[in-house]
């Protein structure tokens, strides 16, 4: 194998010479520095730094440098190659997003012709704003056409290799470069890089590789130990990667701009090697593994601390909008102000939970504040009141006010629980996101499909706006068929062609277009008469709730979707539901139930484990009327609820949790 590598290197060097550029090793002698070495070879210091980045910090006696050697004479082997000579030149200033491939197409010349008259391009990339010389060659007179006799076959047409060559370019390996770094720079997978260079088994500085033409403007060498390159594996998701590498999604995308087009199998990503606390990720993974066993518990049977709990409830009641002297005004405000209605419903659930906790022996002091949907009001409340003995703050409802409250109470280490925001919150150490984000719901649905789709005929129907989700689904379900619908509809014949009779057909529908959802569900409902069809989505958005989408169709299609809550079963007796109906003569809505479930969970966690953070460390999963809670630590601080339901419609339009 050693000799194969040497032979490969020999032929690579010959290839470099044929292209007008050669490289050699230089062993640093005593009293030599980069300036003297550059003078010796008649090149710039920057040319040495480009191939030897570490040389910027100085060179040591005996170390080896890769040196580009400019051709001054033509070798014997080259004299047989007659290259066309330019008759004039065009000065071209490099614009944004231009590369050699685009310039070669623009000026109808080869990339090699451009390099031949711009020697610096053998060792570095095009620079934005750089002016290069574009050669202009003499136009050869076309050969006269010869008539072809009747019935005489045309001369065989040879396929020009130019098209194949134009899709690749050359890269000279620098010291410390890896296949991962090179593949990342040129927008390739490692497998693609290896297939283009089958003879190069070990990377050596100075060897030339064939690479793609989609060049990223970034280095291919990691200059510190805080980051590493990682190749995306089959079925991995963005959510899974953020947890694996203890990094939030925005930071991962900032490190890897290509992720804006979706996560793809084989992508090479730049990822951290340490978490926010400076721990090596291997140690973090080991720690997570040790505590990964989830414990489903009824905390009411494990109560230990019966001291009075002190809660603060911050909600946007917007009471300033209501005039005490006008009942009609109050009714109108309630009708028009959805946030006020949610706050009052949630408040009723909180009070019911406190009453239930009292029955279990847990007393509660609660202070209630109106945040008025304003971060400034939150600041004023915290500054004007004593929070020293507060065990937890429930609310505010909205993202900005929740984050403001957590930031203001961070020094006191008071937990702030955001009850209903589905947006990904800032990483604040004392902030708990009690509702799973939309991204968590999507990831849970994709994982459910991945685990349960074996043996099914999976069909993905996704519009152009859902391309990112479609890519993730295809990564998780590589054998799935795809249907590309129109902007607002999909033909029944198109769907029928993707189905398989005699097998379970799992159709995943991704869109927010009411027209597309209506046409797709109607067509699938008709096709279900002769086919076994189950419908899924990773995002049950508001368009599914529109009247144009038939609930009867969704019921017949056993529609599956992810959800942060389950609707309580009215056929099963529940103490909370019965008590609420007796008190208010109505069935509680989801916000009232959430207020009850969330508040009772907080009180029981405090009474059984002493603090919310200790309950997180214990990996406790709790479940109540409609909601369940499994808090996990965020990579950069704070906690999120990782408990998600996969729900499905029944024929009678009731809902059940999927098995």
UniProtKB/TrEMBL annotation:
Keyword vocabulary terms for this entry: Signal
Name this polypeptide is given: Amino acid/amide ABC transporter substrate-binding protein, HAAT family
Family under the similarity heading: Belongs to the leucine-binding protein family.
Renumbered residue ranges of the record's region Disordered: 149-168
SUPFAM superfamilies: LysM domain, Periplasmic binding protein-like I
Entry keyword annotation includes Lipoprotein: no
Superkingdom, taxonomy of origin: Bacteria
Pfam families, sorted: LysM (PF01476), Peripla_BP_6 (PF13458)
Organism: Gillisia limnaea (strain DSM 15749 / LMG 21470 / R-8282)
InterPro entries: Leu-bd, LysM, LysM_dom_sf, Peripla_BP_I
């Amino acid at each position: 194998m050693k000799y194969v590598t040497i032979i490969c290197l020999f032929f690579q060097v010959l290839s470099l010479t044929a292209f007008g550029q050669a490289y050699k090793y230089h062993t640093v002698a005593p009293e030599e520095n980069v300036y003297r070495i550059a003078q010796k070879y008649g090149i710039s210091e920057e040319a040495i730094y480009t191939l030897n980045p570490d040389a910027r910090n100085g060179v040591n006696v005996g170390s080896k440098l890769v040196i580009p050697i400019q051709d001054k004479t033509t070798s014997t082997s080259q004299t047989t190659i007659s290259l066309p000579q330019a008759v004039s030149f065009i000065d071209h200033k490099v614009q944004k997003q231009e590369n050699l491939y685009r310039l070669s197409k623009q000026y109808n010349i080869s990339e090699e012709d451009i390099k031949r008259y711009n020697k610096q391009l053998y060792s570095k990339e095009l620079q934005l704003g750089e002016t290069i010389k574009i050669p202009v060659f003499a136009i050869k007179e076309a050969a006269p056409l010869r008539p072809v006799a009747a019935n005489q076959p045309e001369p065989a047409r040879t396929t020009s290799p130019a098209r194949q060559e134009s899709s690749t370019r050359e890269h000279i390996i620098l010291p410390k470069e890896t296949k991962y770094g090179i593949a990342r720079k040129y927008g390739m997978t490692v497998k693609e890089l290896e297939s283009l260079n089958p003879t190069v088994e070990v990377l050596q500085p100075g060897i030339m590789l064939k690479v793609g033409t989609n060049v990223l403007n970034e280095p291919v060498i990691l200059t510190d130990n805080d980051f590493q390159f990682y190749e995306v594996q089959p079925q991995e998701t963005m959510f899974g990667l953020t947890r694996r590498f203890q990094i939030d999604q925005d930071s991962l995308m900032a490190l890897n701009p290509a992720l804006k087009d979706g996560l793809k199998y084989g992508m090479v990503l730049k990822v951290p090697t340490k978490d926010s606390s400076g721990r090596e990720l291997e140690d973090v993974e080991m720690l997570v593994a040790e505590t990964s066993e989830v414990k489903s518990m009824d905390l009411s049977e494990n109560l230990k601390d019966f001291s009075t709990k002190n809660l603060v409830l911050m909600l946007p009641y917007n009471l300033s909008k209501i005039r005490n002297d006008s009942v009609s005004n109050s009714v109108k405000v309630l009708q028009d102000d959805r946030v006020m209605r949610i706050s009052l419903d949630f408040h009723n659930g909180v009070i019911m939970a406190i009453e239930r906790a009292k029955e279990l022996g847990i007393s509660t002091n609660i202070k209630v504040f109106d945040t008025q949907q304003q971060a400034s009001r939150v600041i004023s409340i915290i500054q004007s009141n004593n929070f020293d003995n507060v065990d937890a703050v429930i609310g505010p409802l909205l993202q900005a006010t929740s984050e403001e409250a957590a930031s203001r109470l961070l020094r006191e280490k008071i937990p702030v629980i955001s009850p209903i925001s589905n947006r990904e919150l800032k990483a604040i150490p004392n902030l708990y996101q009690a509702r799973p984000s939309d991204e968590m719901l999507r990831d849970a649905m994709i994982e459910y499909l991945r685990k349960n789709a074996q043996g099914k005929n999976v069909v993905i129907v996704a519009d152009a706006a859902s391309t990112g989700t479609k890519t993730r689904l295809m990564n998780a379900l590589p054998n799935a068929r795809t249907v590309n619908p129109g902007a607002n509809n999909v033909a029944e014949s198109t769907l029928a062609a993707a189905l398989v009779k005699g097998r379970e057909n799992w159709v995943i529908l991704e869109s927010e277009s009411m027209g597309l959802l209506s046409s797709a569900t109607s067509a699938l409902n008709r096709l279900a008469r002769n086919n076994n069809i189950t419908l899924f989505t990773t995002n049950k958005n508001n368009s599914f709730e529109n009247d144009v989408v038939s609930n009867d169709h969704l019921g017949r299609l056993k529609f599956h979707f992810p959800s942060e809550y389950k609707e309580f079963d009215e056929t099963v007796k529940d103490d909370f539901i019965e008590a609420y109906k007796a008190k208010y003569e109505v069935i509680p809505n989801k916000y009232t139930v959430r207020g009850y479930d969330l508040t009772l969970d907080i009180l029981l966690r405090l009474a059984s484990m002493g603090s919310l953070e200790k309950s997180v460390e214990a990996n406790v999963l709790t479940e109540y009327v409609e909601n369940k809670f499994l808090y996990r630590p965020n990579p950069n601080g704070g906690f999120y609820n990782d408990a998600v339901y996969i729900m499905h419609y029944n024929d009678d339009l009731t809902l059940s949790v999927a098995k």
